[in-house]
Amino acid sequence: MSDKKSISEADLLLIANQIIQDHENYLEGMRATSVEEKDEVLVFKGEYFLSDQGLPTEKTTAVFNMFKYLAHHLSKEFTVK
């Protein structure tokens, strides 16, 4: 049996967005707007700061890395109920 805490999507997003805001690589407007669980890994989604042409920007990489960081750290601790 898993030692993960069961948590609502809304509560998990509150925790994730606080972590984002407190992180040294935070960018204005960076936030997770949804989360889902796939094979015991939390997948965070939000604004990716694409260019007007729909292409990645430098901010896109920062957001991707932040969501990866959240998945790596929070997937060990939580499961979505």
From TrEMBL:
UniProt-listed InterPro entries: DUF2498 (IPR019633), YciN_sf (IPR038191)
One Pfam family cited in the UniProt record for this chain: DUF2498
The protein's name in its UniProt record: Protein YciN
Organism: Aliivibrio fischeri SR5
